[in-house]
Write a structure and sequence with these properties.
By secondary structure, the chain is an all-alpha fold. Helices cover 34% and strands 0% of the residues. The protein has helices spanning 48-61, 65-78. It is elongated, with a radius of gyration of 25 Å.
Length: 83
């Protein structure tokens, strides 16, 4: 008795190979993920007006004010130095 042949899919995988030509990199934006644990604490003294302004901005963006401060610091660090 002959064994039945296995079904083979002869169609080429559309996701195989280099797909970079499908993306326009000029429209890309950098997204930062907070994947690292926050294992260090700092103390930062701010005047009340500045802290309240930060809290308002953070609330408008729907995030905690401490996360807003971390994001602001990270954005400043990621900016290229202008000499």
């Amino acid at each position: 008795m002959k064994k039945p042949k296995k079904a083979t899919n002869k169609t080429k995988d559309p996701l195989a190979g280099d797909l970079s030509h499908l993306f326009d990199r000029k429209d890309w934006i950098k997204i930062n993920f907070e994947l690292l644990s926050k294992n260090k604490t700092i103390t930062l003294r701010l005047n009340e007006v500045l802290l309240n302004a930060i809290k308002v901005k953070a609330e408008l963006e729907g995030i905690d004010y401490q996360k807003w401060i971390r994001d602001a610091l990270e954005q400043k660090l990621n900016k290229p130095d202008v000499a």
